[in-house]
């Protein structure tokens, strides 16, 4: 009799545990991730080998279930975000992931351009077409296109940039048909699509896609970055520093382990990111000596100010350094002994 009671109790407990794990709540939970050395991921052909290390830092994020939601309520540096703050309206999980991965690709290309320009090395661009980030439901494109497709031509005209596509379609009117040539898994297809007004802006017509320019950067010497499944643009600064360090003869790390975060644009300007406190924790656990944090031009609530508070709270000996530009980071590194 007791055995049956124990078995029933165990079965009920197992069912409850499964439900608590697999029932998804309308939140995402974030927590400290990892700090990863960049040298194994960044390969400049015949690049210089150095003693120190640059590291990118990450934040772990996932859809909240009952258990992770409860943990986020009681654990410090675990954060909850409503789904609508993370994903765009109507965006599927696949589209969100593709958007994050494409942001990483853009970040890598910009980092390469900044580093090569600073090192006085040549770069050119090879345009591949227009990359589909998202397909809107109930619009013409939803019949044929999906996120991840590459549009290479419209009405037989070869496309190089998203701006070309937008300008061409912008000259059309409701009901006009355009022939879209797109590539999926190496195979090309051409389909006719009648233009339709956008639900949120009836004055504009289109096929119903969010799109970005798809291009490759060509460098001399060649460079390859293996970012695996890391998404988002926040590793831009650290990628650019690692690439530059391999391009020049001197070791700009001076033997230190240097972590950091921040987006980077073509001018070398560094932008803020999310999860700075969680990245400070990740870098401290990995033994970093220095951490570059976006200064946001001295803003009161900047990433740098938040990083300082977290560093003090966890008692790290890691030096927190404010940076607004790629040159700021280089200037600081030149002061190291």
From TrEMBL:
<dbReference type="GO" id="GO:0004252">
    <property type="term" value="F:serine-type endopeptidase activity"/>
</dbReference>
<dbReference type="InterPro" id="IPR036034">
    <property type="entry name" value="PDZ_sf"/>
</dbReference>
<keyword id="KW-1133">Transmembrane helix</keyword>
<dbReference type="InterPro" id="IPR008269">
    <property type="entry name" value="Lon_proteolytic"/>
</dbReference>
<protein>
    <recommendedName>
        <fullName>endopeptidase La</fullName>
        <ecNumber>3.4.21.53</ecNumber>
    </recommendedName>
</protein>
<dbReference type="GO" id="GO:0005524">
    <property type="term" value="F:ATP binding"/>
</dbReference>
<dbReference type="InterPro" id="IPR020568">
    <property type="entry name" value="Ribosomal_Su5_D2-typ_SF"/>
</dbReference>
<keyword id="KW-0720">Serine protease</keyword>
<feature type="active site">
    <location>
        <position position="234"/>
    </location>
</feature>
<feature type="transmembrane region" description="Helical">
    <location>
        <begin position="7"/>
        <end position="29"/>
    </location>
</feature>
<keyword id="KW-0812">Transmembrane</keyword>
<dbReference type="Pfam" id="PF13180">
    <property type="entry name" value="PDZ_2"/>
</dbReference>
<feature type="domain" description="Lon proteolytic">
    <location>
        <begin position="227"/>
        <end position="336"/>
    </location>
</feature>
<keyword id="KW-0645">Protease</keyword>
<dbReference type="GO" id="GO:0030163">
    <property type="term" value="P:protein catabolic process"/>
</dbReference>
<dbReference type="GO" id="GO:0004176">
    <property type="term" value="F:ATP-dependent peptidase activity"/>
</dbReference>
<dbReference type="InterPro" id="IPR001478">
    <property type="entry name" value="PDZ"/>
</dbReference>
<dbReference type="GO" id="GO:0006508">
    <property type="term" value="P:proteolysis"/>
</dbReference>
<dbReference type="Pfam" id="PF05362">
    <property type="entry name" value="Lon_C"/>
</dbReference>
<dbReference type="InterPro" id="IPR014721">
    <property type="entry name" value="Ribsml_uS5_D2-typ_fold_subgr"/>
</dbReference>
<keyword id="KW-0378">Hydrolase</keyword>
<feature type="domain" description="PDZ">
    <location>
        <begin position="111"/>
        <end position="160"/>
    </location>
</feature>
<feature type="active site">
    <location>
        <position position="279"/>
    </location>
</feature>
<keyword id="KW-0472">Membrane</keyword>
<dbReference type="InterPro" id="IPR027065">
    <property type="entry name" value="Lon_Prtase"/>
</dbReference>
<comment type="similarity">
    <text>Belongs to the peptidase S16 family.</text>
</comment>
């Amino acid at each position: 009799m007791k055995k049956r009671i124990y078995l029933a109790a165990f079965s009920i407990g197992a069912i409850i545990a499964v439900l608590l794990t697999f029932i998804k709540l309308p939140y995402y939970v974030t927590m400290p991730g990892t700090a990863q050395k960049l040298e194994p991921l960044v390969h400049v052909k015949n690049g210089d080998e150095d003693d120190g290390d640059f590291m990118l830092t990450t934040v772990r994020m996932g859809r909240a279930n009952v258990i992770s939601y409860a943990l986020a309520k009681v654990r410090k540096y675990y954060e909850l975000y409503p789904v609508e703050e993370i994903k765009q309206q109507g965006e599927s999980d696949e589209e969100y992931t593709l958007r994050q991965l494409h942001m990483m690709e853009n970040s890598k290309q910009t980092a390469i351009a900044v580093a090569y320009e600073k090192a006085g090395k040549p770069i050119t661009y090879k345009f591949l077409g227009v990359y589909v980030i998202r397909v809107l439901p109930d619009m013409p494109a939803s019949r044929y296109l999906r996120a991840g497709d590459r549009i290479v031509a419209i009405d037989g005209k070869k496309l190089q940039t998203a701006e070309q596509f937008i300008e061409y379609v912008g000259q059309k009117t409701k009901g006009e048909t355009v022939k879209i040539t797109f590539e999926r898994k190496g195979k090309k297809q051409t389909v006719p699509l009648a233009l339709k007004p956008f639900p949120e802006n009836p004055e504009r017509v289109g096929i119903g896609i969010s799109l970005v320019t798809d291009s490759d950067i060509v460098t001399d010497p060649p460079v390859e970055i293996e970012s695996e499944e890391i998404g988002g643009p926040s590793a831009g600064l650290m990628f650019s520093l690692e690439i530059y360090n391999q391009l020049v003869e001197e070791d700009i790390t001076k033997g230190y382990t240097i972590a950091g975060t921040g987006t980077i644009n073509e001018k070398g300007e560094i932008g803020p990111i999310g999860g700075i406190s969680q990245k400070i924790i990740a870098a401290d656990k990995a033994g970093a000596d220095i951490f570059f944090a976006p200064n946001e031009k001295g803003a009161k609530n900047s990433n740098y100010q938040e990083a300082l508070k977290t560093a003090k709270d966890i008692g790290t000996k890691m030096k927190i350094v404010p940076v607004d530009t790629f040159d700021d980071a280089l200037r600081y590194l030149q002061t190291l002994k």
